[in-house]
Amino acid sequence: MSSIEQPLITLALSKGRIFEDTVPLLEAAGIQVPENPESSRKLILATSNPYLRLLVVRASDVPTYVQYGAADIGIAGKDILYEHSKEHPGGLYQPIDLDIAKCRLSVAVRKGFDYEGAVKKGARLRVATKYVNVAREHFARKGVYVDIIKLYGSMELAPLVGLADAIVDVVSTGGTLRANDLVEVEDVWPVSSRLIVNQASLKTKGQYLQPLIDAFAKASQGNSHE
């Protein structure tokens, strides 16, 4: 019997679609999650593997938990990871695009707003978004002058009440935009979720982390062909 006990591995992820799309990947690796974070108030969930636990955190906080070692690995969208890396460069290893929770970052405006005309005239646009760096770089590439207004939620309100001319936000089905009389006018990025790993954990727990990373890679391969 080995005198070295297997360390606990902590996986950080968010509720909603990322959690739902991660469960099948865990199951493919032989790991079950008995509790659903949507119905449980627990923020730390046990799994069928006694050496793996889940941290349920806000999507935007997942990279922070992983980078500072509170979690060994995590799953976060490309959009969140890009914004995080701009403010906190280094410290995260991104070995796999899991190709789950797929959506897109888009520019949207209220119906009737002449976006193309405003761009052609060189108008300075007010753009509301929580993806400040992505938006700034997107409009800079197009040569469009913008004032970025940072919001954390209910982005669709901004054009409706005159706070902004446009928004940059994640779109999945487009239902929320349509319900609020907004239309997409430009794609910015396709978005999917990625596995991220704390670099120190990879060194100290590598022999235990690598089989899990490999299992995620194998399980996610089918997603890229769907």
UniProtKB/TrEMBL annotation:
* Top EC class, one word: transferase
Q: Which gene encodes it?
A: hisG
Q: Where in the cell is it found?
A: Cytoplasm
Database matches in InterPro entries: ATP_PRibTrfase_cat, ATP_PRibTrfase_CS, ATP_PRibTrfase_HisG, ATP_PRibTrfase_HisG_short
Keyword Transferase belongs to the record: yes
Membrane-spanning regions, if any?
none
Q: What is this protein called?
A: ATP phosphoribosyltransferase
Q: Which keywords belong to this entry?
A: Amino-acid biosynthesis, ATP-binding, Cytoplasm, Glycosyltransferase, Histidine biosynthesis, Nucleotide-binding, Transferase
State the similarity comment: Belongs to the ATP phosphoribosyltransferase family. Short subfamily.
What organism is recorded for this protein? Pelistega indica
The record's domain comment reads: Lacks the C-terminal regulatory region which is replaced by HisZ.
In which pathway does this enzyme or protein participate?
Answer: Amino-acid biosynthesis; L-histidine biosynthesis; L-histidine from 5-phospho-alpha-D-ribose 1-diphosphate: step 1/9
Q: Which reaction does it catalyse?
A: 1-(5-phospho-beta-D-ribosyl)-ATP + diphosphate = 5-phospho-alpha-D-ribose 1-diphosphate + ATP
E.C. no: 2.4.2.17
GO MF terms here are: ATP binding; ATP phosphoribosyltransferase activity
**Per the record, GO CC terms?**
cytoplasm
